[in-house]
Design brief:
Aspartate Aminotransferase, domain 1
Length: 126
């Protein structure tokens, strides 16, 4: 956490604290980590949020069992928060700061709620 901007540390710590809660797991890389959700229908984890030093995080939809149409709807909903930039067909990236931190928290809560819905009902669009 020492590599994270001080005012954002609690935001990223909250994501780490998801480990072992509600089917979430943290996967540690060399310089980053991902938040993964267990998907019972597939009997595996899907990485959905990637967190990087210097305060950047990404939402990644490629591992979710949803249609292209549902993924596009989810993507548009997240873009409406005004903090994400497209960084690939399945990835949205945000770099929160003091001004956008509340929006980032709202977006993460939205993501987690959608991912929880998908995990419970994989055949129903989010």
């Amino acid at each position: 956490m020492k590599n994270y901007v001080p005012e954002l540390r609690s935001f990223f710590q909250e994501l780490i604290d998801l480990d072992t809660k509600d089917g979430y797991s943290i996967y540690w890389g060399v310089k980053s980590y991902s938040v993964r959700k267990y998907l019972p229908s597939l009997n595996k984890y899907a990485s959905v949020i990637y967190c990087y030093p210097k305060g950047q995080f990404s939402f990644y939809s490629a591992q979710l069992p949803i249609s292209e149409e549902a993924a596009e709807t989810l993507r548009n909903e997240l873009l409406s928060y005004g903090i994400f930039k497209e960084s690939g067909k399945k990835t949205l990236t945000a770099t929160p700061n003091n001004e956008t931190l509340n929006k980032a928290k709202e977006a993460v809560e939205f993501i987690l709620n959608k991912v929880n819905d998908i995990a419970k009902n994989p055949d129903t669009p989010p």
